[in-house]
Amino acid sequence: MVNQQKKFLQFIHQHPRLILVISTFAVGPAAILTKIIIYNSALTIAFWRVLFAGIISLLLSNVLKEKSGVLPKRHKDRWLIIIAGVFLAFHFSLWFESLRYVSVALSVIVVTTTPIWMTLAALFFMKIFPTKNEKIAIFLVILSIIIMLFETGNNGALVINKNFVIGTILALVSSWFIVGYFFIAKRILSTQSLWGYFGLVNLSAAITLALLLLLKRESFLPLHFTDFGVLLIMALGPSLIGHAGYNYSMKLTRPHDVGFAILGEPIIASVLAFFIFKEVPALTTILGGILIFIAIYLVVVISEEEAPLI
Questions:
Q1: pTM of the full predicted structure?
Q2: Where are the domains of the chain?
Q3: How far apart are alpha carbons 73 and 291 in whole angstroms?
Q4: Regarding predicted confidence, which is higher, 133 or 176?
């Protein structure tokens, strides 16, 4: 068992981008699964997803007997794990809420603008100034978000859709929280084991969401018992394979690679939404999505050799 684990880890270290491919396909259906049980509170959905993910991760850590243990040795790192959990809680709750207002395509496209905000975070917190291409990318993302707030009216004119505005803002703020979550993962996982860290972060998120549920006086339990099955799938697939894979990739690769892999999420989610919910993205969503893909390509690929994000 130990030898097999060592061989597997050695293989992963030799092919780190394989994790990103698997993670992207695992995360892709997350919005679809959320949409299936969207009649539940966004906080309730998020709570059970991270709670299941946290418990299973800590069990895996124990089974695999991770050498670095569960709790980090440094007190500061423990606080960072708590903060990462808070970020994750707000990311999920805001993103799930955005799916009530907009299509899967629009919501996921906006959420995957993470690499752009990582560039800005590097500027504000690390004084790493963006390159020319990164400046262009930031402009394109802002332009694309403005475009996606509109829809084509009956007379062919562009009109602002109130739901588009609300859903886009929720997804946008959600993407900002995941930036902090990734930055902390990059720092902690240089010395900490994956499953112990991931388990603690998700349990921290679960506690945060539990407090929010109590404050809003919303039900902890989903409306239907069968919803637990969907929630468990969300924890096993998008969280344990997808998010854990992204976190581990932050340890083996550059944030650029993770950012580029995230581009696959809206494509997978949009295709699934089309076949399952018959959702056809608005023309403004398609145009905005193309601009965002170009922007992230400029940041992740073209600017790679000019200035690393972190």
A1: 0.85
A2: 23-302
A3: 44
A4: 176
